[in-house]
Request: fold
Amino acid sequence: MIHYFILQAGPVSSVSDTNNSFNYFPIAIQLIFAIAFVAIMMGVTHWLGPKRATEEKLENFESGIEIRGNARQPMAVKYFLVAILFVLFDVEVIFFYPYAVNFRELGWEGFMAVLMFVGFFLAGFYYIFKKGALNWED
Amino acid sequence: MNELQFKALLPYSLLATASIIVILLIAFRRNHFMIQVVGFLLMCGVIFALVQVRPLLPVAIPPLFQIDGFALLFTGLIIGSVAIVGLFSYIYFEAREENPKEYYILLFLSTLGSAILAISNHFVSFFLGLEILSVSLYGLIAYLRNRNHAVEAGMKYLVLAALTSAFLLFGMALVYMDTGTMSFPEIAQKLSAGGGSSVLFVMGMGFIVVAVGFKLALVPFHLWAADVYQGAPVPVTAFIATVSKIGVFAILLRFSLDVNLQNFPLAIDIFAIIAIASMIIGNLLALRQANLKRLLAYSSIAHLGYLLVAFLPGNMAGVEAAVFYLLAYSITLLSAFGIITMLSTRKKDADDVEIYRGLFWKKPLMALVLTIALLSLAGIPLTAGFIAKFYVLGAGIQSQLVLPVIVLVVTSVIGLYYYLRVISVMFAAPVPAEAWEKTVSPLFYNSTYIALVILALALVALGVFPGLVVEDIRTLLTVR
Reply:
């Protein structure tokens, strides 16, 4: 009964239309997983990671730029390229969510459309790969 | 989507695939020559698909597209122009840049945007097509970013296009607020049911006019034209002058025909004022211009003004005149820009009129082609430009548009001055010639030359026997 809620794919209304506290059970599970995930990640990295307290490492982390002085320092244009590509692919991935939620209703036609979308997407990926946009070192 | 709709959409899908194919070709490290040839074959494929689609029409693909004879005509014009612009691009970019391949991706993408404008009958597809067109154009205009004026031109176009897109969206929102729908036929229904002089609708139209006027470089939205024409690479300038304007004019025409803009005298008055202002100001600004690219920019402002005179009546005669006018106009401009491309050297575009001094005595055929093109722009008899203007005048007089027609005639006479000035420079005594630079690729140089001669012959042929195409245009326009 619960998997309907988690996958959101089946006819939800057929499960139960009554509003009881059990309906909120998946949300509770999700909350527990979210908290546990964050706690484990932070705990394990503190426990396993090597600690070398150099001067640079003890500074506040400001996403890689100098924390004092002029903010307009030159930086490699590659950062910009990677950031742009990240945004691009991020936006493309967003299109998968509506499909994933509705994939059963959309059927084969929807599958073909998504396959075509992924094909175009991979062509673009292949292009930037071959152009060397993801090569960090020349 | 059923099979028929899929088939009717085939030319457009092929056009969309073209840029993907070019991307893959670049990824496989194919050279410029290969990409050029494949691109040209793809454009031929699109034209072939258009011919195949013709008997199936009209096909509606609700809610976004309507593929009919009207769309077919404009798409054919767009694709034909792009095939020729692509041909110019080879010799132009081969002389200048090591790696001009991405240029073709952008070129085909913006063509796709323009073609979508030709078939859309919904605000959403209108906006999407316009954005595909203009976002690729930003890149195209500033493509040779190391050269003078290129980034300036790209930046100007970017800022103004973004601004006018905002106007367009607001205009669409107002029309939506008035009618509650975004599809052109439904807007027409709502308007005819509601009596049809709603303030909101006319306001919305006013905002849409800003965006359309910007793209068509109509006065008072023309300030970018000269700078962008000058700063962009010559093939891109040819592209802006033909393909982008054809697409935007197509959607303007379809929208106004669908909603019967004639029932809104206020909107028609706005267009009439814009047309008159464009004709007068475009021609006056071109008078003292010594830079051929800028001169053609101002001349195109004036020509779009003439075109609007054919748009004003909103009947079939006007549409026929407009289509013929666009055909003549694009052939003319393409041959003029082709000559500029061929004379441009590695260091400098051939945009100074002085470069053309005595051209006739050095390269008579080229000078003749440019002469025919300029005469056609001026509207001298025996060229296509004359017949086109004649049709526009006919359509205007039929609908008793007295003032626009008078302005058209008077400004045409003024325009003669600057076209003839360039021609007289070409036939003047030659200055001692510096050596012409060696051409990069004889094959493409010669095929561009041949294409230009064919275009010039087509101009004369259309001027003498306009019946060659007028009947076809008329029959295609009845497929609605």
